[in-house]
Structures are given as C-alpha cells and as structure tokens.
Design goal:
By secondary structure, the chain is an alpha+beta fold. Helix content is 32%, strand content 26%. It has a single domain, classed as Mago nashi protein. It has a six-stranded antiparallel sheet, sandwiched between helices. Strand 2 and strand 3 form a beta hairpin.
Length: 207
C-alpha cells in the first residue's frame, strides 16, 4: 500500500508496457506536459466508514492517468487470489485491496496542464512547509481520520506528504491545502468512479 514500493513497480511496469505496445496506443495528447519536467503524480486515499473501509488511488505519468477505487480488506488471506485485471502492470495486485473499479484516461493537453499546475503548487507548498503535518490514522475505523499519501516526482526529485484525509479536508497549512487541491484535481479527471462524487470531504475539481 505504501507508495515507495509501488512507485518502483510502476516504473518497471511502464517500461514493459511501452516495449510491448504500439506507438499509437502509447501516445497521449498531454504527454509532453509530463515529460518536459519528468513529472509523475501518485495519490492514495483511504478511510473507514460505518460498514467497512474504502480507498481510491491515482497515478499520472506520460500523459496517462490510472484510477482505481474499492474497499480495504482488514484481514486478507495470504492464499487469496483474484483474476488478472487490465492495468495490473501499473497497479500490481495487493491482497489488502478489493478492486471495484479501474480506469485509464488519456489526458488532453488541457487536462495534463491542469494536473501539472496543481502538482507544481503542491511541490511549492510542500517545500515551504515549516509545520509538522498531522499523522495518519487507522483506515479501518469510522472514528479515525484515515490516510492520505501523495508523492510527486518533478525534475528527478520526489516530494511527499503523508497525513490523514481529515487533516487535508480541514486544510490548516499550505501543505495540506496544496494536497487537497491536487487530490481534487486527480479525482476530477474522467467519470465519477464507485459512485463517489466526494471522498470524505475531498471533492472533484474539473478542468
């Protein structure tokens, strides 16, 4: 579930994806926006509710946006298996995640610039942050604030925020406000997934 391991797998997976796919399938109108600054954005949200817990995750690179949502399995069986899904090369199977929906979007120049703009703002806010961010909480309890993790790769440097969903929604610092805006921008691309127009206060911001 943690981004650093998943990011390593994603880099390898994209290289393999490029090697075995046609150039027309790989090209995206907004690709240049990402490659110019070596930009990639990875977002993971999770929080508990009365009947369980749910998550969303997003990954943008080279003009594509991968999106996924579903539920968290508090006690996954080590032997549990699921059928392969399109996009496993980018989102490797995780026994703790029960996938309900997954999509990949080819970003237009407008959409890519929209995401990049909020990613740049996030990096600036993260770099200037002087206050320690609130810690994340359990993702399995309604009374806990959940988890929000964002990693932005820009010009070969990684910028990361790990905090709670509730803290980002409350937005008491620039780093938290920047995290909220970037998460809303990632959520705003493409159709609504898992019937969730908002994720515990995190809305959809459209281009």
């Amino acid at each position: 579930m943690m981004l650093n391991l998943r990011s390593c797998l994603i880099v390898v997976a994209i290289a393999a994806f490029a090697a075995c796919s046609g150039s027309s399938r790989l090209s995206a109108p907004g690709e240049a926006v990402f490659t110019k600054r070596n930009l990639e954005v990875d977002v993971f949200l999770a929080r508990g509710f009365l009947g369980g817990s749910e998550y969303e995750r997003y990954y943008a690179k080279d003009g594509f946006l991968w999106r996924e949502c579903g539920q968290l399995d508090e006690a996954p069986s080590p032997r549990s298996r699921r059928v392969s899904l399109e996009g496993d090369e980018v989102f490797p199977p995780d026994p703790g995640l029960i996938v309900k929906e997954r999509r990949v979007e080819r970003l237009s120049n407008k959409q890519a610039s929209f995401v990049a703009s909020y990613a740049f703002d996030f990096v600036e806010a993260e770099q200037s942050s002087q206050k320690q961010l609130p810690l994340p909480g359990s993702v399995y309890s309604l009374s806990q604030p959940g988890l929000l993790e964002i990693a932005v790769g820009l010009d070969g440097q990684e910028h990361r925020v790990v905090t709670s969903v509730d803290a980002v929604v409350e937005g008491e610092t620039n780093a938290l406000k920047g995290s909220l805006k970037l998460a809303e921008a990632m959520r705003g691309i493409g159709p609504v997934m898992c019937d969730a127009k908002t994720f515990y206060g995190i809305a959809r911001k459209t281009p």
